[in-house]
UniProtKB/TrEMBL annotation:
Belongs to the CbbQ/NirQ/NorQ/GpvN family. This is MoxR-like ATPase. Residues 52-281 form the AAA+ ATPase domain. It holds the Pfam family AAA_5. The lineage of its organism: Bacteria, Bacillati, Bacillota, Bacilli, Bacillales.
Length: 292
């Protein structure tokens, strides 16, 4: 599916103007397209922001497709995407790289292995920071200078001043209110354009299932679309967690349903991932009403 065919001409021109021919060594880091926006304006606004060199923060529930959106942007701009997956154990080296012992001309030397931040900056590529609000607050200030007008960082391990090459952009993602996350520092958040990414529903979800799963039974596809809508409503009512409404898990269930009965597929892909017995029962009851 060509995402650009329905975009306004001025947005298509922005993509063409900012599309970099990727270095051969980094072709494998260019993401695959496939994200279908719930609203076309979401994609248009992100493209406009990135084309102006602005950082973009994707905010939405788990499984809503934020990582797939980042990969699709990488594909649209033909830009390699370096990634950092945040956790409470994230340290500075996870961003900038680390020192290691190597040998050159028979002599032992200390070499520096660049991390995703340094790689993206030096090559003018995209950096994707997933679940940025999972990182310890004391780790993130290192990237403040990267995210503002300076677009630079002093590597704390080598003292090298690194200035970002043209084309460098930061795309980050957060799951607000998720276990293990912290409130994002306002100074850090202000360095981003914030985009809400919601769950796909209706015709967009139906198309996603057709394009990205092995399921081709029209009746079953429509039933899974309805199941997703019911799960999202249950999430909004506080009856189940966001994990239950994950689009990623739903697609897994659709894939399995091409081979095994749908209720068993839902059990394996969605229900058994949940910890709370009450949540499991809610999903099980919803599936019982839709599938034979």
């Amino acid at each position: 599916m060509d995402l650009t065919q329905n975009l306004p001409n001025d947005i298509k021109q922005l993509i063409d103007q900012h599309k970099n021919k990727a270095d051969t060594d980094f072709d494998y880091l260019i993401g695959e397209s496939g994200y279908i926006p719930s609203q076309e304006s979401v994609l248009i606004d992100i493209i406009a922001a990135l084309s102006q060199g602005k950082n973009v923060l994707l905010k939405g529930p788990t499984g809503s497709g934020k990582t797939k959106l980042a990969e699709t942007l990488s594909s649209l701009f033909n830009q390699p995407l370096f990634s950092v997956n945040c956790s409470v154990d994230l340290d500075v080296e996870s961003f900038v790289g680390f020192k290691t012992i190597d040998y050159k001309d028979g002599k032992q030397i200390i070499d520096f292995v660049p991390g995703p931040l340094v790689q993206a900056m030096k090559n003018g590529h995209f950096l994707y920071i997933d679940e940025i609000n999972m990182a310890k607050p004391e780790t993130l200030p290192i990237i403040n200078g990267v995210l503002d007008y300076r677009r630079q960082i002093t590597n704390p391990l080598t003292n090298e001043m690194i200035r970002a090459k043209e084309g460098f952009n930061v795309i980050a993602a957060i799951n607000e209110g998720y276990i293990g996350t912290t409130r994002l520092n306002e100074a850090l958040k202000n360095r981003f354009i914030v985009i809400d990414v919601s769950y796909l529903q209706g015709d967009e979800l139906k198309q996603l299932i057709k394009d990205h799963t092995d399921l081709n039974d029209e009746k079953l596809i429509q039933q899974f679309v309805q199941l997703s809508s019911d799960l999202i409503e249950a999430t909004q009512q506080g009856r189940v967690s966001e994990d239950a409404a994950s689009i990623r898990a739903l697609l897994d269930a659709c894939d399995l349903s091409a081979i095994i009965p749908p209720k068993r597929a839902i059990l394996r892909a969605i229900i058994d991932k949940l910890e709370d017995d009450r949540e499991k029962e809610v999903v099980r009851n919803l599936a019982e009403t839709l599938f034979e």
